[in-house]
Design a protein that fits this description.
Elements: E1 2-5, E2 17-21, H1 27-31, E3 35-38, H2 42-51, E4 56-59, H3 67-77, E5 82-87, E6 100-103, H4 108-116
């Protein structure tokens, strides 16, 4: 797991604590001033959410079919947790209750905007 907080790029008004469950999606968020915790392990993600208040979770294709189950478990720990999903097609995250969806390919600005808005697009 990578835990980092770096300043650079355009800083958002209110930096968020973001849990990223997707490879290669975390650097742009760090550069925007967010506190980013990154993992590709579902059990580790659950442990992080138990210990740290998370504003937004970014989930991607790494979760596959267990995505909704993990989202439900994360929200049982932190109700109202906002979810931004990254997918290659409409069907990949059909069942996930999410706040926002980014379709691949997407721009880094799209990702930054989704996180800055707390997933509320």
């Amino acid at each position: 797991m990578v835990i980092a907080s770096q300043r650079g790029g355009v800083a958002p008004t209110l930096p968020a604590t973001i849990l990223v469950l997707e490879e290669n999606a975390d650097q742009a968020l760090r550069e925007s001033g967010h506190r980013v915790l990154a993992t590709t392990n579902a059990l580790e993600a659950l442990e992080v959410v138990r210990r740290i208040r998370i504003d937004v979770v970014v989930v991607g294709v790494l979760l596959g079919e267990r995505g909704q189950t993990l989202v439900d478990e994360l929200r049982s720990i932190q109700p109202g947790l906002r979810i931004v999903s990254i997918s290659g097609s409409e069907d990949e995250f059909r069942g996930i209750d999410r706040s926002a969806r980014l379709s691949s390919p997407f721009s880094l600005d799209d990702l930054r905007e989704a996180a800055a808005d707390g997933g509320e697009l």
